[in-house]
Write a structure and sequence with these properties.
The complex is a heterodimer. Chain A is mostly helical. Chain A is built from 22 helices and two strands. Chain A has a domain of 188 residues. In chain B, helix 3 runs parallel beside helix 5. The chains are: A mainly alpha, B mainly alpha.
Chain lengths: 591, 503
């Protein structure tokens, strides 16, 4: 029986029990949920199950194959870690939305048809908005709203695409689509928005730094990677994605270098990392898809680790800007070590998880005849080391001492970071468990002299460049201002749009009001006229009608329980009733 | 109990209102509960009818009044779901009104002696019950004259009198707006009446079933045009939308939800009177109706975005929302008509919650200006949940009923217009314009409920907290119904399909 539970259901239904529990029981329950989900995943039969009939469609809530299983495992695993990290939070709303959010991601992963895919897609967007709103700051409120609009635009593109697609092909199966017609381009646009493909990426660096400390961990793991999953399923081998992905790996580096907010830096490096995956999907060979999947798996863990360690700093000190921090290694050594492990992983240092997955993607690119792309990706690898690998730990924990003295974060946060750090190293040293669950059989060996030396050289020169720049004072200073990205193109029309609503539309409305009403000649006479009319009608009813058909009046009078004044309007009602009945009878008698 | 069941459904609310009137000094504040009980009873009857109809029967009751005019009542798969949802909303809003009307009377008339207070209080409920009679009459009437009668009944009695006596603003503006509403309603209905009479000259009957005989007749075009113009003024299609923001904004919020039904039920009349019998004759109207609906959707949404008054905000959103249903029935395919009808049900559910939640905000804070509100989440969590759920229903997000409606509606519209590039553009712009709905509902929700609490709100002398259960519980029930319809729409869609599928 346990086999037939859709994976998303455990999280989404489980979320609604959280407010009813208290204290230890609640913590235990919240940790139990991901474990239950994992057991459920392990028991799930391969193939399609949990089929529901809805409208004329068969909705498949659990389509289990190798590709979806990998993403399912990592989503459940990261939920466990992130929930552990968030255990100290008292706000039930945050926990509930976080579980709904994870449930949405699992739902997207295992959806076997486009309809349920879309439903879970929207759940994903809605619940993540609440994670941003939960921070209760004005900036978060505004960012949450922009985030939501971006996602709904994507959602509507997707919806239009899906409806057209179902219309054209007559099937609602969610499987390989391929770029052929308008419908598929609309669907691709919807997916690309969540996969932060340029120029649809501006929501991510805007919103993630403004989410709650614990919410950002969930967000870094789920939204983009579920989009990577759907892209890998529907558009493997689409050439446009190779270039989009390669570009995505390069441009965020420049933003990340001048970004001041540490979580902003991580948000840009997130785009950069997703770029590797999108590029791999564009290539679409089995090795590339394996590389993408493995990279997504490892990336989720180390990016969550980085967000957790930087989040701990924000949680303990209340500060997050590079210019405000520094020298924290003295009082937060454990957090610093975790951050360094995460940074080493994201840079792809050998013996960490980033190495075994990133080199796979790079090899897949190298096997194609695409020298420019290959060069761009290598440049990006050096760049990611530069900003995420060195900049984040260096400016947070070392650099000039900012004088901040604090403590290590609470135990549950430390434990979560410890687990994630352990996984980063473990997978780097012993990648076999990961390679075993990849969608295609793996005959790839990461630890060859070529890969190790190549990566080390790259990193060495990256480090050299950073050191030289810092020492010579050429390193670009962090800007205190907000970086404006492509969202500039959105915010400007946004403001124009608000102006448009406030001025011309209101003017048009007033014009309508004036012309239509005054044109009829009603408006001008209304103020005085209506009162006069009201009085006239009043008089007419009271003097004229109520005294003439005395029968009606007396009849009503007898029925009244107490004698007294008969409210005039009640009289109108009765009379209006009779008038209408009279009209009906009259019309009936016409013939 | 089951004899004359449809007549009972139509007449019992009216009889209850008579009872309230005759015993008003005895029952006083219990009037609200009498109204609720009578509506619960009729809803139970509707459910009974529903079971029969779901089994494949139809119910037809004959009450001839004259040679041509009758009060015959007929229930089938199209009218029943509409009647059911409308009656549920009537119950919810009656319960909501129990506290709300006390507050209105206090605001408008100040301190009055017990006897006068009872007169005012009972007056509201006896007028309120006539709404149900009117709506049920429109749903079940088979005779065009009877349908016209019920439309006028709604316009003249509850709308005019409740507006004039319990509305917002000062005495003069109230009566102004009430009169304006009356004029627009009567003029709209007059066009319908002229159309009906024109049809009568051709087919010699007022029965809706006889409208089929008009098919192929050259007069069918003119009849349809006249009726469409009449309905368009009810549906607030641009440029006949002027009355809507005024009327909806100044009404007491407890019946503003019913006003949305009053406007939107014209969609049902259109489907019943024109589209089902004259499907082939009105194909010429397809593109014009869809274009007008599209303009209204977008214009209404812009209008809504520009509002700062919370009640006018709700009113303007109605303009835009109704047009989705119109868009659906305008596309004239089976799916799009079903989608349009389903969206109609979803919209009235969502709009009843939206208006009433706005009413709660005004009731609790006494502020109507959105710019002065903010951060109410911490003080009013239930109200926040209500607003967010109705925002989800209105912007058609899964898993609410709005999404199902939108999905079916646009599937149907694509079916028709896929081959035609102009049609395709219209439909795609239609889908994209749903973004505007999302923006205005959620933007306003986030402005009112999130962020930091405004200092003038925290320092005001009356306490800000969630309203009593009689106000919030019915609305939560409506939200739950919308959720159930979104997850399990099959019964209602099957019922619609049993009638519309015959096209």
């Amino acid at each position: 029986m346990i086999n037939s539970v859709p994976p998303a259901a455990i999280f989404i239904i489980g979320a609604f029990l959280i407010p009813f529990l208290r204290g230890r029981l609640k913590s235990a329950y919240m940790l139990l949920l991901p474990v239950l989900a994992l057991i459920n995943l392990l028991n799930m039969p391969k193939g399609k199950s949990c089929i529901i009939k809805f409208l004329d469609y068969n909705l498949i809530l659990a389509r289990v194959d190798n590709l979806s299983l990998v993403f399912g495992y990592i989503f459940v695993l990261i939920t466990l870690i992130a929930v552990l990290y968030a255990l100290h939070v008292k706000d039930d709303m945050q926990h509930m939305t976080a579980f709904c959010y994870a449930g949405g991601a699992l739902g997207v992963t295992f959806a076997g048809d486009l309809f349920s895919l879309f439903v879970f897609w929207e759940i994903l967007a809605l619940s993540s908005v609440l994670l941003i709103l939960a921070r209760k700051k004005e900036a978060s409120r505004a960012a949450a709203f922009r985030y939501f609009v971006w996602h709904f635009v994507g959602g509507v593109c997707l919806l239009g695409g899906i409806i057209l697609y179902v219309q054209n092909r007559g099937t609602i199966e969610f499987d390989y689509i391929g770029l052929t017609d308008l419908a598929s381009y609309l669907i691709l646009a919807g997916f690309c928005l969540n996969a932060v493909v340029f120029p649809l990426h501006a929501w991510l660096p805007d919103a993630y730094p403004k989410a709650t400390v614990t919410g950002a961990v969930f967000m870094s793991a789920l939204t983009t990677k579920s989009a990577v999953y759907v892209l890998a399923r529907t558009f493997p081998g689409a050439d446009i994605l190779i270039w989009a992905g390669a570009f995505m790996t390069c441009f965020p580096i420049f933003y990340a270098v001048i970004e001041n907010d540490m979580r902003g830096v991580l948000a840009y490096s997130l785009i950069n990392q997703v770029g590797f995956m999108v590029c791999g999907i564009g290539i679409g060979t089995p090795l590339a898809i394996n590389g993408v999947t493995a990279h997504a798996f490892c990336h989720i863990i180390y990016k969550a680790l980085l967000f957790m360690s930087v989040g701990s700093v924000l949680h303990m000190t209340g500060k997050i800007r590079a210019t405000d921090l520094g020298g924290l290694y003295k009082t937060m050594p454990f957090t610093a070590i975790c951050c360094i492990i995460g940074a080493a992983s994201i840079s792809g240092l050998p013996l960490t998880s980033g190495f075994i997955s990133k080199s796979m993607t790079l090899t897949a690119v190298g096997l194609q005849d695409l020298p420019i792309i290959w060069f761009m990706l290598y440049f990006a690898s050096a760049g990611v080391f530069h900003h995420a690998g060195i900049k984040v730990p260096y400016f947070t924990f070392f650099s000039d001492d900012s004088g901040i003295r604090t403590k290590e974060p609470p135990f549950n946060m430390c434990l979560a970071m410890g687990i994630a750090a352990f996984l980063c190293i473990f997978l780097g040293v012993y990648p076999k468990p990961l390679y075993d669950i990849l969608p295609y059989p793996v005959d790839y060996i990461p630890y060859t002299a070529f890969h190790v030396l190549g990566m080390l050289q790259l990193l060495m020169f990256g480090a050299l460049a950073f050191t030289l720049l810092i020492l010579s004072g050429y390193y670009p200073a962090e800007l205190r201002a907000v970086n404006l990205d492509t969202d500039w193109f959105v915010r400007l029309p946004g403001r124009a749009f608000v102006w448009f609503c406030k001025k011309p539309v209101i003017a048009l409305m007033n014009f309508f009001d004036r012309s239509v009403l005054k044109g009829v000649g009603v408006a001008r006479s209304l103020p005085a006229g209506s009162v006069a009319c009201e009085k006239g009608v009043d008089k007419f009813y009271h003097v004229g009608l109520t005294s003439a058909p005395a029968v009606i009046y007396n009849w009503v009078n007898r029925l009244r329980i107490e004698a007294g004044y008969l409210p005039r309007n009640l009289m109108y009602i009765l009379i209006s009733f009779f008038c209408f009945l009279f009209v009906i009878l009259l019309l009936g008698a016409i013939k | 109990m089951t004899s004359h069941i449809l007549l009972q459904i139509v007449m019992i609310p009216a009889i209850a209102s008579m009872v309230i009137f005759l015993t008003r000094h005895k029952i006083g504040e219990k009037a609200g509960w009498i109204s609720v009980i009578s509506l619960v009873y009729t809803t139970a009857l509707i459910c009974l009818v529903g079971l029969k109809i779901y089994g494949g029967e139809t119910i037809y009751e004959k009450y001839p009044l004259g040679a041509e005019v009758s009060l015959n009542l007929f229930a089938d798969g199209l009218s029943l779901p509409v009647a059911l949802i409308i009656n549920l909303i009537c119950i919810a809003l009656a319960s909501y009104s129990i506290h709300y009307v006390e507050h209105r009377i206090e605001l408008i008339y100040g301190e009055v002696d017990k006897r006068t207070w009872r007169i005012y209080y009972t007056r509201f409920f006896l007028l309120y019950n006539l709404f149900s009679t009117g709506f049920m009459g429109i749903c079940f009437a088979t005779n065009l004259i009877a349908m016209y009668f019920f439309m006028e009944l709604l316009t003249v009695i509850p709308l005019y009198f409740i507006m004039a006596q319990f509305g917002y603003s000062d005495y003069i503006t109230r009566y102004n707006v009430a009169l304006m509403c009356l004029f627009w309603g009567v003029i709209g209905a007059m066009f319908v009446l002229i159309g009906i009479l024109l049809a009568y000259t051709q087919i010699g009957s007022f029965e809706i079933a006889a409208m089929k005989n008009l098919a192929g007749n050259p007069f069918a075009f003119w009849v349809a045009l006249l009726i469409f113009i009449g309905l368009a003024s009810k549906l607030a299609i641009v440029p006949l939308h002027v009355w809507m923001p005024w009327v909806h904004a100044e009404h007491p919020t407890c019946i503003a939800g019913l006003l949305a039904i009053y406007a939107n039920i014209a969609v049902y009349i259109g489907v019943r009177v024109l589209i089902l019998p004259l499907h082939d004759d009105i194909k010429v109207f397809c593109i014009p109706i869809m274009v007008l609906a599209l303009i209204t959707m977008i214009y209404g949404a812009f209008l809504t975005l520009a509002q700062t008054d919370i009640k006018r905000f709700c009113a303007c959103s109605t303009i835009s929302q109704i047009s989705y249903s119109v868009f659906g029935i305008g596309a004239l395919t089976i799916y799009s008509i079903e989608g349009g009808m389903f969206y109609f049900l979803s919209h009235i559910l969502g709009k009843a919650i939206l208006f009433s939640t706005a009413g709660i905000v005004v009731y609790v804070t006494g502020i109507r200006d959105i710019r002065q509100l903010g951060g109410l989440w911490s003080k009013m969590p239930v109200t926040t949940i209500l607003w967010m759920s109705c925002a989800m229903i209105l912007s058609a997000l899964p898993p609410t009923s709005g999404f199902v409606g939108k999905w079916i509606l646009f599937t149907g519209a694509f079916q028709k217009l896929y081959a035609d590039p102009i049609g395709l553009t219209i439909v795609i712009v239609g889908i994209l314009s749903t973004i505007l709905t999302l923006i205005y509902t959620f933007l306003t929700g986030i402005r009112i409920f999130f962020g930091s609490l405004k200092p003038e709100l925290s320092s005001s002398n009356h306490e800000i907290k969630d309203p009593p259960l009689t106000m919030s519980l019915p609305l939560l029930t409506l939200a739950a119904i919308a959720l159930i319809l979104g997850v399990y729409p099959k019964p209602i869609l099957n019922l619609f399909h049993s009638v519309i599928g015959l096209l």
